[in-house]
Design brief:
45% of the residues lie in helices and 14% in strands. The chain has 265 residues and is α/β, with parallel strands linked by helices. The protein has a single domain, classed as Rossmann fold, CATH 3.40.50.720. A 7-stranded parallel beta sheet has the order 3-2-1-4-5-6-7, with helices on both faces. α1 crosses α9. The longest helix has 29 residues. The relative contact order is 0.14. The structure holds nicotinamide-adenine-dinucleotide. The site of nicotinamide-adenine-dinucleotide has 29 residues, from α1, α4 and α7. Its EC number is 1.1.1.100. InterPro entries: KR_dom (IPR057326), NAD(P)-bd_dom_sf (IPR036291), Sc_DH/Rdtase_CS (IPR020904), SDR_fam (IPR002347).
Length: 265
Amino acid sequence: MSTPPTTPARVPAGSLLLEGRTAVVTGAAQGLGLATARRFAEHGAHVLIADVDAEAAHLATKGLADARLGPGQVLAAGCDVTDDASVRAALDAAVAATGRLDVVVNNAGITRDASMRRMSEEMFTQVLDVHLRGTWLGTKHASDVMAALGHGGAIVNVSSISGKVGMFGQTNYSAAKAGIIGLSKAAAKEVAKHRIRVNVVQPGLVRTPMTEAMPPAAWEQKMAEIPLGRAGEPDEVADVVLFLASPMSSYLTGNVVEVAGGRFM
Ligand SMILES: NC(=O)c1ccc[n+]([C@@H]2O[C@H](COP(=O)([O-])OP(=O)(O)OC[C@H]3O[C@@H](n4cnc5c(N)ncnc54)[C@H](O)[C@@H]3O)[C@@H](O)[C@H]2O)c1
């Protein structure tokens, strides 16, 4: 009988979940990405905040570094997730500074909402480009770097329940967010042999700059659909991303975790 692969070390009670690990979070200058970067720093990780808005990425980085949340470094990179070289450069910068790459969260996102018949092809393509192609590039390069380093890793891709049920006015976003699930499951199968796990979070309505731009009537309509009776806070998504990024979820790959207060369960 062949020897089974070794089980990863369990997490001792009370320990920091990402101590000594290196994480890159895209679109982390604000919103869910920033909350995730903060949670990772609190749990001991070196964190690189990657965002297309380089100035905002540097400001967010300074904010986290000044708060001295944990023992890790906080780094910034201007990074456009739709640009192959830019994605690779952000990951390489994290490795150059810390010698590792353990976690990549593909979180960057935009919306260009309109009913399908009013949506231009450009609005469709822009959203597919940032979410689906961006997540594919992030997953591909993260896998490549992690496999070369040989220490395994965790990739967490940010979908949305819009990709589960399809939202009015979001044929572009719903398609991209559904596509992220297929790509993540396929990638999970390909990279498992390198001890790289790929999982997905599907947030529901969470209070961030993206959703605060919504008209009040649309917000109220969504609230009525949530069994827990309230919107989620960015930290509540960040905690689930932390779980999927950490050894606490060592036997999960190709999973989709809804963080939606029961909406569209
Ligand atoms: N807020 C919600 O209710 C909610 C629900 C479900 C899913 N999501 C998803 O969570 C993720 C984060 O959303 P958020 O609400 O924090 O949004 P947000 O608009 O507050 O933040 C998105 C960040 O992504 C960055 N970004 C945009 N295009 C980029 C690019 N090409 N390259 C790199 N960075 C880029 C922006 O500069 C910004 O800092 C997105 O993928 C979004 O679709 C959000």
